[in-house]
Amino acid sequence: MRVAAGPSVMPVLEADVDGDWYTMPLATRELTKASASLSVEAREELACETVRVVADALREFHRRGQVHRDLKPQNILWLDDDGEGRWVVSDFGIARNTPGSTTSQLTQAGGLLGTTGWAAPELHLDAHMATSAADVYSLGAIVAWILTGSFPSISSVPRPAGRFRSVVVRATRTEPTRRYSTIDLMVAAMESEIVSHVGPLSSQFAALMKPPVSYDALSNFLVTHSDNPELLLAELPSLSSADLNSWFLVDAEGLLEVAERVSGMLQDEQGRAGLRQEGLRPPLSWLLSVLRIVVGHNRAEAAERLSIGFFEALEACDQWPVSQEAATWFKGLNTSDAEVMIAAAKASTAEHYLLGYLADSWTTPKSDVVRRWLT
Question: What is the pTM of this model?
């Protein structure tokens, strides 16, 4: 705490030389109760203020390679200083020192260090190797809680409606490298949300697709609104194979995340935005195009994961033209790719359905492994 000292960090008044105790000013409240009964506008103001405070508190701390690892509302406290109050970050008890200077390792791989719900996923796996991205995640979870009033869980952070939704989604991505690289960038994103004027999602999507396309921005936009079937099932199929291939080369994980969400929507009749018959074919064909690209780039693990969802969506929608197209493609796979797809089919709930379409297809299998599977 002394290393991180500043106006946004809880001051240390005295401390035992052996580190057994320290004293700090008396805080009058904590962030946990600050958002109760606030209006939407007041919640947004509090969220912005909180992010600015944490950014100021941890900016130099992070630059030195140190990580707080336990950001949560209970550790953001209010101090009254000569009539002028301020929020401060406290409790650096499980902070990690600069790599190479750690004096004691508080955890080992496989054990959580931090607080469930607020802790980033990597803190459940190997907290000692966590980076400042873990603090970005925790701060994103705090913002989500301020805006929605709902607490995050180990597997889910609530997504606010409207402003700052995209900020929360990006800050709390599962993969650390896909979050904001610094809290200052998170601050900038929130400030940009305040001054920006956005239109309908379809218009925003069209604007993102204007050359030169930023596929990273496209991924973030679509993941942010990945619960919107009108966008994912009606707008996405307009992307050409060239668009998809470029997207894959720039941001493969983003494309895969969106594709997996599309397959989940198609499997749930209630989540298809009322699409029936012909309306289901474009998103199914879009998924098949993505799968072809993933297989073509030899991403076996990603292809297997995506194809399980695709096969199950194919059965749930039962669209003959797309199923025939998929069967023809499947029979044309080489041995190694066919083995991956067969494993995915067996792992899915749609193996019997897929076998039926493969048997009905007049195309001769290219690979012996497919012929053996069919018999």
Answer: 0.80
